[in-house]
Amino acid sequence: MPKLKNKSGAKKRFRLTATGKVRMNQAGKRHGMRKRSQKMIRNARGSALLCDADAKVVRRNFLPYAK
């Protein structure tokens, strides 16, 4: 059976923590900051963890060889 490929878009967007959870960057901070509330801008700082259902999909389909 041939090797599976990682999705190159997923490699750029997600990375795994040491315990195997999937970390992502917060969305919605590329442009259009004037129309967003300060609370939204503050809360979208840094990174967050994907919920378990989405993390399962990312690990299985997009990053099959991620440890």
Automatic annotation (TrEMBL):
Recorded GO CC terms: ribonucleoprotein complex; ribosome
GO molecular function terms listed in the Swiss-Prot or TrEMBL record: structural constituent of ribosome
Cited SUPFAM superfamilies: L35p-like
A GO biological-process term: translation
Transmembrane parts of this sequence: none
PROSITE patterns: RIBOSOMAL_L35
Superkingdom, taxonomy of origin: Bacteria
Keywords assigned: Ribonucleoprotein, Ribosomal protein
Listed InterPro entries: Ribosomal_bL35, Ribosomal_bL35-like, Ribosomal_bL35_CS, Ribosomal_bL35_sf
Protein family according to the UniProt entry: Belongs to the bacterial ribosomal protein bL35 family.
NCBIfam families hit by this protein: rpmI_bact
HAMAP family noted in UniProt: Ribosomal_bL35
Protein name: Large ribosomal subunit protein bL35
Species whose genome carries this gene: Pelagibius litoralis
